[in-house]
Write a structure and sequence with these properties.
2 copies of one chain form a homodimer.
Chain A lengths: L1 H9 L6 H12 L6 H11 L5 H13 L4 E3 L7 E3 L6 E5 L5 E4 L9 E3 L2 E13 L1 H9 L3
Parallel strand pairs in A: 3-6
Antiparallel strand pairs in A: 1-2, 3-4, 5-6
Helix pairs in contact in A: 2-4, 3-4
Chain A binds a DNA duplex through helix 4.
Chain lengths: ~140, ~140
DNA sequence: CTGATTGCAAAAGGTTTGCATGAAT
DNA sequence: ATTCATGCAAACCTTTTGCAATCAG
């Protein structure tokens, strides 16, 4: 965690308590939270925190390549503390977002079909292993 | 086009003039239009057409598998008359959306990493061939 | 006829923006 | 002093919803 803070400092980021709170919460999280989820949790500890600050901090972290934003949900953005290229599945049963670590030889950065690809997001929709297992007992 | 209409009838779709207008416009289009783009064009010919009807018709066409919805733009939905699995690139220069017809062995429907994948959307962000060509002359 | 569809307008929800306050250097 | 971040609230846009009027079969 402390080398994350060093990294931010080196990138010239002014580290306010609010920003630290967002960074720390997000880097610990494994659930790809939305802005509002982050805001609601942090507000308990930092009652003066505003949603606009959460937005601007996430924008900043995205810009410097510390996190990535997902549009896998149609209605709102989710955030992933891991900025490296990987894919995601949204489970239609439990609504959770899972990281999908596969090395796709085609859907990747670089030249694809004469295009210069700089960023990739692959969104899979279906059922996660946990919900598949639950279904095995039932009919359906 | 007439076998499209037959197909809709066979699926039990009530064919109103508004729905026909949306279907015909979208099936001819190659630009992945947004709801508002569709609405603005159709309103010229059908002044009584409402945006709510465009929304509901697109929802209907999606449900019966005639079109697909893209979330490649962060702010609004785009629609693709081709419901088959294929991928897309959003060019950051011209803002156009291109179809990317590649056969990815990994990002596909079926079993992926112990998940049951029912739908796939791969969104590539970068520069399209036309804009790349334009850049060649310039320094950049 | 009768249920489905339409159009209108309002509501909802997420995101962005403007500006005054406040903190840091 | 000056710059930059914050918080608040309003504004903005897209999408959804409710309902009365209308239409398709």
């Amino acid at each position: 965690m402390s080398n994350l803070i060093d990294r931010l400092r080196n990138k010239g980021v002014v580290l306010t308590p609010q920003r630290l709170a967002v960074v720390e919460f997000l880097k610990k999280s494994t659930t790809h939270p939305t802005v509002n989820e982050i805001y609601k949790v942090l507000r308990k500890k930092y009652p003066m925190m505003s949603q606009a600050t959460v937005y601007s901090t996430l924008e900043l972290l995205k810009r410097i390549g510390e996190i990535q934003e997902l549009s896998i949900r149609k209605d709102k953005a989710c955030f992933d503390p891991n900025p490296k290229l990987h894919h995601h599945l949204l489970c239609r049963k439990c609504e959770k977002i899972l990281d999908i670590e596969v090395n796709c030889p085609i859907i990747k950065k670089g030249k694809v079909k004469r295009c210069e690809v700089e960023e990739v997001q692959a969104y899979l929709y279906g059922i996660c292993p946990a919900c598949l297992k639950k279904e095995h007992g039932k009919k359906e």
